[in-house]
Write a structure and sequence with these properties.
It is found in: Membrane. Residues 1-22 are annotated as: Disordered. It holds the Pfam family Sdh_cyt. It comes from Phytoactinopolyspora halotolerans. It contains five helices and no strands. By secondary structure, the chain is mainly α. The protein has one domain: Up-down Bundle (3 helical TM bundles of succinate and fumarate reductases). α4 (75-103) runs antiparallel to α5.
Length: 154
C-alpha cells in the first residue's frame, strides 16, 4: 500500500499552464461590481420615481392614464424609466444567474435555466423599451369614444 501525501492547506498551487491562464476572465468580478453600482443607481431611480409619482402634485390621486401619458411625453422621463427598466432587469437577472450557478447541480439543467432566464429578460427589456418609446395616448386612427379626454377631437 502506497502512502498518500496531502499538501498543507496553505501550500502554493502548482503553476498553471499558459494555455489555461489565457482563457481566464474576471467575469464574476465585473458581475459583482455591476451589482453594487446598479444597486445604488436603482435606489436613486426607484425613490425618484416613487417621489414624483406619489408625493409631487396631487400624489396618488393623480395617478391615471393621463399622468403616465404626460410623463412619457417628456424625453427626460422616458430615459429615466428606461434606465430603471434596464438596470432592474439586468440586476435581477444577474442575481438569478448567481442563484442558478449556486444551486443547479447538473450542467445541462444549469444551461437550460440560464437560457430561459436570458430569454425572459431579453423579451421584457425589448418589449418595455418599445412601450416607453412608442407610447401614443392619442393614436390618429382610434375611435373618438375610445380616446382619453385630453386628446384633441379627430
Amino acid at each position: 500500500m502506497a502512502a498518500t501525501t496531502i499538501a498543507a492547506p496553505r501550500s502554493p498551487r502548482s503553476p498553471r499552464s499558459p494555455r489555461r491562464m489565457r482563457g481566464r476572465t474576471n467575469t464574476e468580478l465585473y458581475a459583482w461590481l455591476f451589482m453594487r453600482v446598479s444597486g445604488v443607481l436603482l435606489m436613486v431611480l426607484v425613490f425618484g420615481h416613487l417621489f414624483v409619482n406619489l408625493m409631487v402634485g396631487e400624489g396618488i390621486n393623480a395617478l391615471d392614464f393621463a399622468f403616465v401619458a404626460g410623463k412619457w411625453a417628456d424625453p427626460f422621463w422616458q430615459v429615466w424609466d428606461l434606465l430603471m427598466l434596464w438596470l432592474a432587469m439586468i440586476h435581477g437577472s444577474n442575481g438569478l444567474r448567481t442563484i442558478i450557478n449556486d444551486y443547479a447541480e447538473r450542467d445541462q439543467l444549469r444551461m437550460w435555466l440560464k437560457v430561459g432566464l436570458y430569454t425572459a429578460a431579453a423579451i421584457t427589456i425589448v418589449l418595455g423599451t418599445l412601450v416607453i418609446f412608442t407610447f401614443d395616448p392619442c393614436p390618429a386612427d382610434a375611435a373618438a369614444e375610445l380616446l382619453p379626454s385630453f386628446c384633441p377631437a379627430p
